[in-house]
Amino acid sequence: MKRLITSIALAATVTTTIAATGRPHRSASLDNLRIKGILMYDNEKSVENLGLYSYTVTEPVSRRMLTPIPRIYANGGSVAVDNRLYTFQYDIQYGYVNSARYYVYDLTTGEQLSSTSMGYDLATAYSHAAVSSAVDPVSHTVYSSGYEYNDADKTLSFKLKTWDVANNTKTTVGDMKAPLIVMAFDKEGQLWGITASSSTTSTDGGFLIKVDKATGAMTVIGDTGVRPYYDQSAVIDPASGTFYWLANTQTEEANLYTVDLTIDGRCIESCRAQHAAFRLNAGIYIVKAGTSTVKVAI
Could you give the domains of the chain? Predict the structure, then answer.
């Protein structure tokens, strides 16, 4: 499996056409394309910076706040549906559950609409946690890469689940060989994902996966060459089929990558983020300037 990253920031190259002058020519549609997502942390470490942002997809990637949502932290998964952000947040330390709650926010106002506790049972808390989630544009079902806790040997197994956001329930579809740090659907309803790294030094993360959403079976397409860690998100533009990945690496480098879904899963382009703009992002979706939302994903 090949590995190749072409960095715009370093190589000053793009995958669009080249003008007669020899200088890169950017597509007008890419200049207008925006990715919306929830920022949960940045280098300034101020809760006032958290909330819904709009991001550009061309170099240099920049962000603009749309809706402040102070203190949001969706470490157990999030998904945007009908202008609402559905999240799960949990805190487990030394085998004890300090909190396990679903929160719902209005993405226009930032208002917290509800907060629902799942109790303090360890197995229950893990069963609701998700590494990543995505909305199937065909069935409108929310899918998650999640866990099941085995109390007998104190281990976690990886599961593909569906998420009923209205009732705060997750239902297991099937076993998964590895957790997915990001998930995204294409317009035909095919589920794709990137494997999570098990540690800050492991090499098991960063593989592009094609997922059978009926069983959880995973097919490895290729190695992106990027080793992801910490919370992040991805989305596939339904118009172009481009897989956009707002990634954080094991060394805490934040970049926007595009991933080749057709050959071997390699990252074919990266745009550096200003102000570590993608550190701990969640719940992203695609919009184009002057139009309504055309894709929702996590």
Answer: 1-72 (no CATH), 73-203 (2.130.10.10)
